[in-house]
Amino acid sequence: MNGMGDGDGNGMGSMTMTPPSSFMPMSTGNHGHGMMMHMTFFWGKDTLVIFPGWPGNAGIGMYLLSIFVVLIMAALAEALSAISNRFSQSDKTASNAVTLTAIHALRMGVAYLVMLAVMSFNVGVFLAALVGHAIGFFLGRSGFFHSYRAGDLEAHTTTNK
């Protein structure tokens, strides 16, 4: 194996390794123009979110719409979680179990779509998902809008006099 290296025993000679690119070319179908699929976080309105070609190079309006859709889906995932928690505390009947299972399946489907959107590595999409989850948690599960039953309200007012 003489001549296969520079004496350091790795057999690579004087070859240098180039670092991997942070994006890779991606075709968007039969439209004749491709986009780059980023493999690291980036800022920019030209991105693909969940579906091929959407929003793509359609402009700032479609990008903002995709940001809004991701925000709403993340908030919906949290709202479905709150509904599931409240629903699970009701009577344990077969119909309630089927309904709870359907709510869970829908929540997981929406959560996976949000995850796929975040995998676009676009910072705006990532922030929209975070804000959506925060809004959904605040509105549905934080307890800030806790509804008092009649007896709870009377007990609360008599102890705070």
Give an account of the 3D structure.
- This is Copper transport protein.
- It is found in: Membrane.
- It holds the Pfam family Ctr.
- It comes from Rhynchospora pubera.
- The chain crosses the membrane at residues 60-83, 95-115, 121-139.
- The model is unreliable at 26-32 (pLDDT under 50).
- This protein has helices spanning 60-87, 94-118, 123-140, 150-159, and strands at 23-27, 34-38, 47-48, 55-56.
- The longest helix has 28 residues, at 60-87.
- Helices cover 50% and strands 9% of the residues.
- The strands form 2 sheets. A two-stranded antiparallel sheet has the order 1-2. The protein has a two-stranded antiparallel sheet with strand order 3-4.
- A hairpin with a 6-residue loop joins β3 and β4.
- The protein has 4 helices and 4 strands; from the N terminus they run ββββαααα.
- With 161 residues, it is mostly helical.
- α1 runs parallel beside α3 (123-140).
Write the layout of secondary structure elements.
Elements: E1 23-27, E2 34-38, E3 47-48, E4 55-56, H1 60-87, H2 94-118, H3 123-140, H4 150-159
Antiparallel strand pairs: 1-2, 3-4
Helix pairs in contact: 1-2, 1-3
Transmembrane segments: 60-83, 95-115, 121-139
Membrane topology: Multi-pass membrane protein
Pfam family, one: Ctr
Would you kindly provide a brief summary of this structure?
This protein is mainly alpha-helical and 161 residues long. 50% of the residues lie in helices and 9% in strands.
Biggest sheet features: 2 strands, antiparallel
How large is the radius of gyration? Answer: 25 Å
H/E series, N to C? Answer: EEEEHHHH
- Percent of residues in β-strands: 5-15%
Q: Report strand order across the widest sheet.
A: 1-2
Chain-averaged pLDDT: 78
